[in-house]
Amino acid sequence: xxxxxxxxxxxxxxxxxxxxxxxxxxxxxxxxxxxxxxxxxxxxxxxxxxxxxxxxxxxxxxxxxxxxxxxxxxxxxxxxxxxxxxxxxxxxxxxxxxxxxxxxxxxxxxxxxxxxxxxxxxxxxxxxxxxxxxxxxxxxxxxxxxxxxxxxxxxxxxxxxxxxxxxxxxxxxxxxxxxxxxxxxxxxxxxxxxxxxxxxxxxxxxxxxxxxxxxxxxxxxxxxxxxxxxxxxxxxxxxxxxxxxxxxxxxxxxxxxxxxxxxxxxxxxxxxxxxxxxxxxxxxxxxxxxxxxxxxxxxxxxxxxxxxxxxxxxxxxxxxxxxxxxxxxxxxxxxxxxxxxxxxxxxxxxxxxxxxxxxxxxxxxxxxxxxxxxxxxxxxxxxxxxxxxxxxxxxxxxxxxxxxxxxxxxxxxxxxxxxxxxx
Length: 423
Known about the structure:
By secondary structure, the chain is α+β, with helices and mostly antiparallel strands.
């Protein structure tokens, strides 16, 4: 038998090396699943996080049967794994990355999941039990939400809560946890536990105060903000509108809002944002509620918050907004008003430590001179699930066991709610 030629042996070695490199690269690209997020105008952006190496190679994306090159989002911030992205045209029908089919936007959104305030709280002496899914239930919440088969997922902000080293006396809860604005912490607080939901439908991401310029701004702007990456923190970013079929989402950055101070500069900024809107069938999405309630430090039941947003709305009274979706207060609440305002929904119960209790109903509470009527609040972990009906939307608060806790029907400017018994 003839001995293989030197050329043949070299060719075999090169081929094997290339196959090994391709296999290693394919494995590296499975850090979290790829996802679709929505940008200004409804632009669908595919993103995937890959392992860092001496030479970062982005995978191709298969769009309607054709291979397309994804682009590396640069510069890669220190301590972060790189992300690759590709802007999809509105006419794209199918897309996949490394065999993972992507869920593209649909023309008629009929099912929407809303969640927020999702990370595990570690700050100073406060330490949530990140190792107990009943006490930090983000993965259970996200997995159940994925099972709802949503057409759209809205995160109302605050992803990263591991701000301090785990306290010495809480090692059983968070010992060895990553901390700070880096890939390991973002993976632990969001990408890992939310993986199933990440791949389930297109996302609209809102920026929370935990993503401000003093906290986790690099992870926010690099991984989740839909706009070009500059590696510079903007204290405030302009509002934009996502068009999803006949539905519009007004995405407003409230990350720097002063809760109890109607700061004139902030009021003017949000007045300008609201005056620029020309929308119909719209939901306003931001982190801080325009009309929220929290436990009062002076012993009375509740007090309002987000003074700059309240003041700006009263000056402009924008048209075409049917609902406001927010978080920040770590509870669930539906706050309808006597007149002249859309219903305020607060979905700040996605996983982080819950807030100080407020009453199950805050009816009669005056916020900027308008009384709350027909409210429901719950100090329960879960996600908000909105389903379209013949007349409007049915809203359900779903628990960590995926049971209905609260059900509300929102139609023609009217909101009616009832509580459900937990099994």
